[in-house]
Amino acid sequence: MIDLHSHTNESDGSCSPKQLVEEAVRAGVTTLGITDHDTFAGYDQALGAAASAGLGLVCGIELSTKLHGHSVHLLGYFFGSNGLTGFRQWVLELQASRRERNIRLAERLRELGFDITIEEAEARGRGMTGRPHFAQIMVEKGYVRGFREAFDEYLDESAKGYVYRQEPQFAESVEHVREAGGIASLAHPIRVNGDVAALMPELRDAGMNAIEAYHSDHDEEHTAMYLALAKQYGILVTGGSDFHGDVKPDVKLGTGYEGNLHIPEDLLDRLTGR
Ligand code: AMP
Ligand code: ZN
Ligand code: FE
Ligand code: FE
User: Fold this and answer.
1) How far apart are CA 78 and CA 63, in angstroms?
2) What is the number of the ligand 1 atom nearest to the C-alpha of 147?
3) Atom 17 of ligand 1, residue of closest alpha carbon
């Protein structure tokens, strides 16, 4: 069984990289892609454990990008590619701009009268600290009644505490992945804002060369539709559960929600060009 989409606690999953490897082995996964949001830290730390356990590990990342002003997730897969140094540098720059935004966000919230520091937020989110961690703190300190209110009143793009963050554009992100020899796959297309079929020419022209047809959020019809698009546009197919551990306890490694996910094994051969 293969699963090319999973998260560790280096982004927003609950398992440490080592625990994720153990979970994967227990679940019967033979090849696992670790695709943390905007970081390789989880993959890097899982390498040793995976080698000892005989688990095939695929180097991946899930990038938060902007397409026509909306958030679109892009998966990057690197099957033993060389050009990764430059790409990793670019990812570090993304992390630096996130941290710089978080510092300004903490300042803004203090201006609004809340006792919140960057250290408190980073204690929760570490390398992937973001607005949800600030929301958590606001809830815990009783500044808002709930997560919803924290976003609606303060953290949402339209709310008074919002501070701008430079996010990479979809096309730019695809370019970086491809330059580094990676496969650029549209993550969970079902969540894309807009008609994916209509967007396909633009995405393909940007260099996107795969689509995540198999995903826990897809039913059979969705999967069939995305497989057809892959065929029509001559691009590759990827698939994964989007496992987050206890953060999304109903999604299981390799099998998704109650076994709704069936990722064909031969997908790997196509991706690796065997
Ligand atoms: P950041 O990357 O720090 O800008 O935070 C983005 C994350 O915040 C998203 O992945 C969502 O999980 C969450 N988020 C953004 N906007 C909202 C909103 N209006 N309501 C709830 N959660 C949101
Ligand atoms: Zn996630
Ligand atoms: Fe995603
Ligand atoms: Fe994901």
Assistant:
1) 14
2) 21
3) 156
How many alpha carbons lie under 13 Å from residue 190 in its C-beta half-sphere? 16
Ranges of residues in the chain whose predicted pLDDT is under 70: 81-83
Is the pTM higher than 0.85? The answer reads yes
- For residue 81, the model assigns a pLDDT of 64
Take atom 20 of ligand 1 and give the residue whose Cα is closest: 151
- Phi first, then psi, for residue 3 (nearest 5°) are -150, 115
Q: Work out which ligand 1 atom sits closest to the CA atom of 131.
A: 3
pLDDT at 83: 66
* CA gap 180, 85 in Å, rounded: 8
Residues in contact with ligand 1 by the CB-under-6-Å rule are 130-132, 151, 156, 165
Sole residue written with tokens 């390498």:
47
Going from the Cα of 115 to the center of ligand 4, the distance in angstroms, rounded, reads 32
Written as six digits, the tokens of 48 are: 């040793």
Per-residue pLDDT, 80: 78
Structure tokens of 77? 């897969």
Closest CA to 7 of 46, 41, 34: 34
Identify the pLDDT of residue 87: 96
